Amino acid sequence: MNRATISRRRALQQVALLLGGALSAPTVAGVCSTATRRAWAASPAWAPRTLSAAQLELVATLTEHIIPQTETPGARAAGVHRFVDTLLTDHYPTVERDRFLAGLAAVDAQARSRYGKAFVESATGQQVALLRELDAAAYAATRGDDAWFFRRMKELTLVGYYTSEIGAMQELHVSPFGAYRGDIPYTAVGRAWA
């Protein structure tokens, strides 16, 4: 492996650790597909094939809350919403794609019920409060369709982000130290290293 890059395989391994060790088959297939990776690259000609414009914006907003812009670009800048649309189109079976789309509709319905507005039109604090509830429910002992959707949304966000150039090269860094050395003070590192 080139010291200046991180392989997709290595990025997937790291994301799997963040998610507790398991990634869905459609997500892995999408990341491993060169054609899929090219399909969602930053191209002015790119257009969604599964998500409507409103759904694409909802996905972009959700992913940006999961991985917001800080001193490094967030999920929106990394094109994670494009990644989600491309995987839904090229790798998800119809049943799972429909389940994901139903999950998006449910998030919007919950926002409309609570705040009288679509999720993307709600105030940032309202969006965050709803996402925190979805996150808590998704990782509680009892899981239903809402849990499946939010877990998959997080999976796609993390995988899409950390396998993008922005996530792999700006957020994570290839370790300049080589082999693991546990005696380096965190203040000397300054961020997460790949």
Write the layout of secondary structure elements.
Elements: H1 8-18, H2 25-32, H3 34-39, H4 53-66, H5 75-78, H6 80-90, H7 94-115, H8 124-138, H9 145-162, H10 165-171, H11 186-189
Helix pairs in contact: 1-9, 2-6, 4-6, 4-9, 6-9, 7-9, 8-9
Keywords:
11 helices, disordered N terminus
Principal-axes shape call: globular
Largest beta-sheet details: none
Structural category is mainly alpha
Task: Round the Cα radius of gyration to an integer and report it.
Answer: 17 Å
Kindly report the average pLDDT value: 80
Output the helix-strand order: HHHHHHHHHHH
Helix content: 55-70%
Q: What is the oligomer described by this structure? A: single chain
The total domain count is 1
Number of distinct beta strands: 0
Fold and architecture overview:
This protein has 194 residues and is mainly alpha-helical. The protein has one domain. Helices cover 62% and strands 0% of the residues. Helix 2 packs across helix 6 and helix 7 crosses helix 9. It is globular and about 45 Å long.
Report a brief summary of the structure.
With 194 residues, this protein is an all-alpha fold.
